[in-house]
Design brief:
- The structure is a single chain.
- The chain is α+β, with helices and mostly antiparallel strands and 119 residues long.
- The chain has two helices and seven strands.
- The protein is globular and about 55 Å long.
- This is SnoaL-like domain-containing protein.
- It comes from Micrococcus lylae.
Length: 119
């Protein structure tokens, strides 16, 4: 999921968001908004890498075949730059680690993220 998200953001590919996010979910809409802004401003992320590491037990309720699960994770974002169409650096971001809970939904295509909640 993190690799697909990094690729979608780095290539400003709104269609690629469907690979990891539930359509019309908070998570999917947030990433598509970022991608629309990147395209409108002719900018892109350079050096962006993302990783997601489980950080506790998932809460999927008590059903036999859950359809929603809350998964505690640590989100890691590499140091990266926002560059313009000419490759000029507009901003530089430092690496960061954030504790979050991913709300995952079972879809026909497997589990996808619908919401990211800070913890």
């Amino acid at each position: 999921m993190a690799t697909e998200r990094a690729r979608a953001l780095a290539h400003a590919d709104a269609a690629a968001v469907a690979a990891y996010a539930v359509p019309d979910s908070d998570a999917g809409m947030a990433d598509r908004t970022v991608i629309e802004r990147l395209r409108a401003e002719d900018t892109r992320f350079d050096g962006l890498e993302l990783s997601v590491t489980p950080d506790g037990e998932a809460d999927a309720g008590s059903g036999q075949r859950p359809t929603v699960a809350a998964v505690p994770v640590v989100l890691e974002t590499s140091a990266h730059r926002l560059v313009d169409g000419n490759g000029e650096v507009l901003t530089a971001e430092v690496a960061r680690r954030d504790a979050a809970t991913l709300v995952m939904e079972r879809t026909e295509d497997g589990w996808k993220v619908s919401e990211v909640r800070p913890r």
